[in-house]
Amino acid sequence: MPTPAVQRVLVVLPAWNEEHSLPAVLGEIREHLPDVGVLVVNDGSADATSAVARRHGVPVLDLPFNLGVGGAMRAGFRYAIEQRYDVVVQVDADGQHDPRDVPRIVEQLQHSDIVIGARFAGTGEYDVRGPRRWAMQVLAGTLSRMAGTRLTDTTSGFRGAGPRAVRLFAVHYPAEYLGDTVESLVIALRSGLTVEQIGVSMRERTAGRPSQGPLRATVYLLRACLALLISLTRRRTVVGPAEAVVV
Amino acid sequence: MTGGYLFALVGGLVTLAFMVELLRRRRLREKYAALWIGVAVVVLLGAFFPQIPAWFADLVGVTTPVNLVFFLGLLVLLVVCVQLSGEVSGLEHENQTLAEESALLRNRIETLERHAGLGATEPPVADPGPGGGAAG
């Protein structure tokens, strides 16, 4: 396993209509993470997201139409393999993830294939209740048992993927709605990859409106439970985690 | 031969002719047309020989042959719908892969252009899609 010094780290920002928050996020990444590669995946934005990213001198993948986070991330993983990056860290372009947490995620990737930046794991505050909370608990409980470690925030979009996970996800990242969070973990665990979480603090979005109201978030989580059930009944991914994946 | 059976006969013949014509003009792929041609042939057989549906209804224990025809008709439609959903899923998957591939290629072209000292390209215009918004 390569040492952290020679590991090439790519921060992927899936961005859909984030022209207002993107400059601050990119600025922070430049400031706190001077050594990492950055890629903005413009997921069919109707605004100037792509132009803003280009002005910051960041490589951009322009998807011709909106694919959702799953599609954007798979494109990111493919780019990472093309450009020979070892590690991919997904960071939201809306500014709710603190880039200063990225080195901790990368460090933890020495021990696990996937590291989730979890909102409930100590640092920060994030409160939900009702059906949304139950759904999150079901997801967390099931995936924790599969992973053999405590996972509290399985729908977090702040996560790092080590070399084996990058190779797996470049081929098998689920593009379906919801697939990017829960189903990707199931695929990874069933392929023999290890998943861990570390606590991160979440911030208010710097600009724009949140993509989900409470009702939509609840529906989202219930659908995530359904997706989890279905993906649990699937056969294991035939492709091996590291060697067999054709790049 | 009653009027009803004549009606079925004409319907089956028209469907059959229509399918063959679509295939001839390459408007329809064989794998989709095959099923409809099969349905048309079955309808034709039933119209020519009314004793076949009657015999079959008796065999499976349905009192009125027409109910059996309705049931089978619904079944065929269900199968076709599921098959088409499957085809659409496959197309979406291929569509996504193509979109990713085109984005990666565009990025490589821009990198090459930069190395070649050509001017910066403007970002492409995104397709807002039929609804103007986006899915999920």
From TrEMBL, chain A:
Its signal peptide is none
Q: What's the superkingdom here? A: Bacteria
- Magnesium as a keyword of this entry, yes or no, is no
Pfam families, per this entry?
Glycos_transf_2 (PF00535)
Instruction: Kindly list the GO molecular function terms attached to this UniProt entry.
Output: transferase activity
- Alphabetic keyword roster: Transferase
Domain Glycosyltransferase 2-like per the UniProt entry, residue ranges: 11-146
Q: InterPro entries under this entry? A: Glyco_trans_2-like, Glycosyltransferase_2, Nucleotide-diphossugar_trans
Family according to the record: Belongs to the glycosyltransferase 2 family.
Name of the protein described by the UniProt record = Glycosyltransferase family 2 protein
| Protein source organism | Cellulomonas humilata
